[in-house]
Amino acid sequence: MYKLLIVDDEPLILEGIKRTLDWEMLGFRQIETSETYGDALTKAVEFWPDLAIFDVCIGKERGYNAIHKLNELGLPTTYIMMSGYGEFEYALEAIHCGVKDYLLKPVERAKLQALIERVIVENLNGTLEGRNPNCRDIDPILEVRYDSLSKLTNRILLMVKAEYDQNINLKVLASRFRMNGTYLGQMFLKETKMKFSEYLMVYRMLCARERIQATDEKISTIALSVGYANLNYFYTHFQAYFSKSPSDMRRKE
């Protein structure tokens, strides 16, 4: 149904992105890859991808320059930029050329999955219903099927999955949806029986627990990775939710 182009000058990265997700289950039937700037432009023009994932550096060239050129040609493509660099200037250039989002390498599977789901719903006018027969069709926090929720609520949940590590709140969402923040919060509460801030907190806690149990990363690093710049605030939420400290949970595991 959908066509995907992945562009990176490192073959191992290309192969890794191809294997990270079950693209066919998500509806991507044709996947092309490219290792050079010129070849990427040629392939994009030839088969008009629905989604293109560009590395910011393609040899000596820049991925956002390729996107600028393809935009000028009028390709109906949604773009994602990825890079091993954290400098804001690269993210700024990506924003200027209209990319959907910007991912740092190594790309985390969960973030990529959530972002692709957002693209399918928001940009490709698709649906996630029936794409995964496993428990992914049930929200782990609300414990209800995604297809039982409204499209707007699903979009909010997808944004939480993709941006839980950032400064996301109802004001940010309301601005994107061009809606009143108070109304959006009331609607989310009415449908989910949870405040948005509570849902976001629980999602962050579950992500933090997973990393605490699966890695040896410092607690401060994990806290920052799930959106908590204030470590004490993170400890307070974690203790209140799990009735144990992050260190205690790691020791018992």
UniProtKB/TrEMBL annotation:
Chief site of localization: cytoplasm
Keywords associated with the record: Cytoplasm, DNA-binding, Phosphoprotein, Transcription, Transcription regulation, Two-component regulatory system
> Where is the protein situated, by its record's location annotation?
Cytoplasm
Keyword Phosphoprotein listed? The answer is yes
- 4-aspartylphosphate carried by residues: 55
- Pfam families to which the protein is assigned, alphabetical: HTH_18, Response_reg
**Please, which domain of life does this record's source organism belong to?**
Bacteria
Where in this chain does the record put each Response regulatory domain?
A: 3-120
Boundaries of each HTH araC/xylS-type domain copy? Answer: 154-252
Protein name stated in the entry: Response regulator
Instruction: Specify the species.
Output: Paenibacillus taichungensis
